[in-house]
Structures are given as C-alpha cells and as structure tokens.
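Quick question, first post here. What does this chain look like in 3D?
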Amino acid sequence: MGHSSHERQQIEFIGGPFDGFRYEIPVPLFPPQTIALPVSETIQRMLNGENTGVATPTTSVAAYSFDRGAGRYRFLGAMLPETLRAGK
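> Answer (accepted):
Ran it through. Tokens below.
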C-alpha cells in the first residue's frame, strides 16, 4: 500500500520562540535534521496568520533538531544572527 499523494504529516515545534507552531509536509518527505529559523516580530506575526506589515529586524536565530520518533522539532537554543555577530 502506498501513500496517497494528498497525505500530509503535521510537525510540531516544542520549546523556544516557535513553541506550539505546527506545519504540514507531504508524507514521503523527511524534514531536515536541524534547522535554524530567524526570529523577528514579522516572522511571529506571519506564523500567527496576521498581516506582517513593515519588516522588522531579526533579533536572533532559533535552532531546532528533528526528533523522528516523536515527529517534532525540539528547541536546541538561540544565537545572534550573523549580521549582529559580525558587528555590522
């Protein structure tokens, strides 16, 4: 039995600035093991389905690791974006 082309799995984020956020991907795809997401008011508004308005600066970058057994991303920590770290 194969997966239907319309089947999707929901992936939840645990901890950190994206705690509780969920998104769906097609079932045959595997999400990346580790991802880094920019954190800003604009991103938070977008994830909440609000009008993003004027873009706001990125305040940090949140790193998440995918737990395949649980099917969720777990927060690893946050770091300064490269532009801030470089002092630009």
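The chain has a mean pLDDT of 85.
Residues 7 and 26 are 6 Å apart (CA to CA).
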